[in-house]
Structures are given as C-alpha cells and as structure tokens.
Amino acid sequence: MEESELRRGQNTLFILGGGVITFGVWSVVKMIMYFALDPAKYFHFDDIPQEYRLLAMAFAYGIIALIVGLDIGLRFYVGLSARAEARGKKKSRAYIIVAALMAAGNLLIFLGALFLAASAAVAAPDNILDTAVSTIVDITAQITLIELVLTARRVQRLRKLLSV
Question: In the chain, fewer beta carbons within 10 Å around the N or the C end?
Fold first, then answer.
C-alpha cells in the first residue's frame, strides 16, 4: 500500500514541480505587463531632474530585474529539485524549506496586493477584471507551492519508511 502511495506522491511531486516552474514564468510575464507597458503608473519620475531620470529609471528597472530574477531562480530551483526527487534522486530538505518560505512570503505579498487592489477598485473600478484574473492565477500559484511542500514531505517520509 505504501509503495502505491509513494508512486502517486512522486507523480504528483513531478507535476507540482513543473507547475512551480510555470508560475515562475508567469511572474516574469506579470512584471513585464505591469512595469513595461505602463511605467508612469508605477514610477513617478516627475520630481527627479531631467538629467537624472534615465539613471533613476535604469536603477528602478535593475532592482525589478533583480527581484524577478531571484524569484524565477528560486522557483526553478524548487521545481527542478521536486522533479528530481520525484524521479528517485535523493534531495535535501533545503528546497522544501525554500518553497515554504516562498509560500509564506508570497502569501504576505498577495494579501497586501489584494488590500491595495480592493482599495483601488473602490476608487477606480476600471481594472477589476485584470485584478480578478491576476488574483486567480496568484492563488493557484500559492496553492501549488503549498501542495508541493506537503507532497515533498510525504514522499520523503514514505521513502524513509520503505527504506528506498
């Protein structure tokens, strides 16, 4: 019975690892949509003298690229580690800890963004559909991370129990 649970858990872990990677790509697309398509909405460079505006924009986009790069790098690490463990390779618990920390951080960011979006929706209800779609995708990404953590722990426990 435990062998079939292990196989089922490994299959689920493999799929969840791919999902985490896919949502990493989504985070890049989302950031491009937010900041590249309408930078004036998020960056207020009007107070900065004209000769420093280009430098300020480069700095702001550099910080965003660093954050997005870190996010996608961590998602690839977690996703590829989960897929490797699903194939039977021994992996440390580090990727599970990283995934749990990402889930906790994403939850805090998501709740803050949801609060801001709800506040903005009252003031300007023109972006409600965009916000709703983004929220649904973000919730799905969050559930995927949480499910990955739970499944990875279950797979590791079953492996230890079966001495595989």
Answer: N
The model's pTM is: 0.84
What's the average model confidence in pLDDT over 126-147? 83
DSSP readout, the chain?
-HHHHHHHHHHHHHHHHHHHHHHHHHHHHHHIIIIIT-HHHH---TTS-HHHHHHHHHHHHHHHHHHHHHHHHHHHHHHHHHHHHHTT----THHHHHHHHHHHHHHHHHHHHHHHHHHHHHH-GGGHHHHHHHHHHHHHHHHHHHHHHHHHHHHHHHHHHHT-
The two three-digit tokens of residue 161, written as one number: 């129990």
Q: What is the overall mean pLDDT for the chain?
A: 86
Q: What single DSSP character describes residue 125? A: G
Q: What percent of the chain has pLDDT over 70?
A: 91
Amino acid at 33: M
DSSP conformation letters of 37-52: T-HHHH---TTS-HHH
